[in-house]
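re: ur question from yesterday

yeah so i grabbed the chain u mentioned. its 123 aa long if i counted rite. heres the sequnce exactly as i have it in my notes:
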Amino acid sequence: MEIILSNGSDKPIYEQICLQIKSMIMEGTLSAGEALPSMRALAKDLHISVITVQRAYEDLTRDGFIETVSGKGSFVASQNMEFIREEQLRTAEELLQKAAEIGRAHGIGYEKLAGILKMFYEE
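ran it thru and got these structure tokens back, copy pasting raw so excuse formatting
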């Protein structure tokens, strides 16, 4: 499992880990039941604190992406398609909100933005 961290990112390290693992799960790179590295092993690989990885795993568990079994480790949770679709929709909404803010700030009209979205959607 390859996770790339950026010290220059505006997102905290634990959140970067969460986002990348969520992405791997939603893309199917990580499948249901697949074991994740132990917190200690991932912390060592990434050269970060175990507490940071623990925070990421706790957030992933809370959001339903992974399950942790005492003494056995953490595993990718069984995902239902509706949950994955909802997560993808939330991501799309965030990106569209950013596009709308840029459009308003720079005088790009709604029709122009909608046309660009339509063009990308139909590619």
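noticed a couple things. The first strand starts at residue 66 and ends at 69. also Helices lie at 13-27, 39-46, 50-62, 81-105, 110-122.
anyway ttyl
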